[in-house]
Amino acid sequence: MTLDDAMNFAVAQGWQKFRGEQVWRWVHGKGVRSFDEMTNLAKPVRAELANIASIGGLTVGEIQTSKDGTRRLRLVTREGRSIETVLIPDGERKEKLTQCISSQIGCAVDCQFCATAKLGLERNLDAGEIVDQVYLARRLLAEVDPERRITNIVYMGMGEPLHNYDNLIKSLSILTDDKGLGLSQRRITVSTSGLVPKLERLGNETVRPNLAVSLNAPNDTVRDMIMPINRKWNIGKLLAALKAYPLEQRRRITFEYVLLAGVNDSITDAGQLAKLLRGVKCKVNVIPYNPHPEAAYTRPAKHVIDAFQNECKRLGLPTYLRTPRGDDIDAACGQLANRVDGSPIVPLRIRKGPPPAPPVD
């Protein structure tokens, strides 16, 4: 529930509106998971709440810790399905930590280099399941690493956030509400593969996070091959939408570019990319491919990665190398597939032949 939802809920029970705000602050501000902890509510009210409502929809199924300190949390929904969220510490700044959260169980976009895509789409997460990833992670950190706190949220886990638009916006409203967790919009980033109509809607929202776009190719030929969604909204349509996207003065669009050996990693590709993004207020995050068993791609050699980045920089494109984090526990970009002991919980769908048509929005 948003704060308004909670106050309307209280009125529907015959209570005064402020009771809804009290309950909401306990859940989203103080992080309680039991009505018994709400000490400023009368016992009969708490008892009634326990009969008609619940707090939290996820439980922790498994925690893995990488050699670099990254933690992969496999979380379980009420019906027993699994999703993943990842806690990524900043090695240089001990107080800083980024949480990568999921918006769907699986994904329908079918990017060829991504393990999550091979699961297919099971369902959207509701807004409560999205924000509960953050709350469970905060409780875990308080127990095992109290010096760290979640400073940044990225919607870059399982799923395409803009395919789950209503719950995305609702979760953003909850996480940024000053009476709850109160995260800054500037500390939240939503990543998308490029759903053009939803980008236009997102630009008109009152809650507007940072925007990251999974581009991964310098031209339509390559992007058609590795990202089937490009056949519905090609690079030209995508860039037109992004150029019209309202950006505050100091904000830039982030383009994510997964480097695949022999596919999109040449000096020529770097030149095409720099030319393509000329005039766009942006930066590029270069992400060396993180291998997994469900795709036959390989990570380029270090000298190839360096040459690609240096050429982009030489041509005036702000380009940053993202060192893989948590790849030893299948927690890095593109590796989330609900694995337990190295095997996925849901058998991955290894597709043969050409990629399917992109999903209908």
Offer a quick outline of the entry.
The chain is an alpha/beta fold and 361 residues long.
**Name of the CATH architecture of the largest domain:** Alpha-Beta Barrel
Unreliable segments (pLDDT under 50, ≥5 consecutive)? 347-361
How many strands in all?
14
Number of domains: 2
Could you say which overall geometry the principal axes of the C-alpha atoms support? Answer: globular
- CATH topology of the largest domain, what is it called? TIM Barrel
Q: How many separate helices?
A: 10
* Main sheet properties: 10 strands, mixed
- The strand line-up of the biggest sheet is 1-2-3-4-7-8-9-10-11-12
What class would the helix/strand composition place it in? alpha/beta
Distance N to C terminus: 26 Å
* Average of pLDDT: 91
Secondary-structure element series: HHHEEEEEEHEHEHEHHEHEHEEE
Helix content: 25-40%
CATH superfamily of the largest domain: Aldolase class I
Describe the fold and architecture:
With 361 residues, this protein is α/β, with parallel strands linked by helices. It has two domains: 50 residues, DNA polymerase, domain 1 (Orthogonal Bundle); 286 residues, Aldolase class I (TIM Barrel), CATH 3.20.20.70. Helix content is 30%, strand content 19%. It has a ten-stranded mixed sheet, covered by helices on one side. A two-stranded antiparallel ribbon has the order 5-6. The chain has a two-stranded antiparallel ribbon with strand order 13-14. A hairpin with a 2-residue loop joins strand 13 and strand 14. Helix 1 crosses helix 2, helix 4 crosses helix 5 and helix 6 runs parallel beside helix 8. The radius of gyration is 21 Å and the shape is globular. The chain starts with a helix and ends in a 17-residue tail after the last strand.
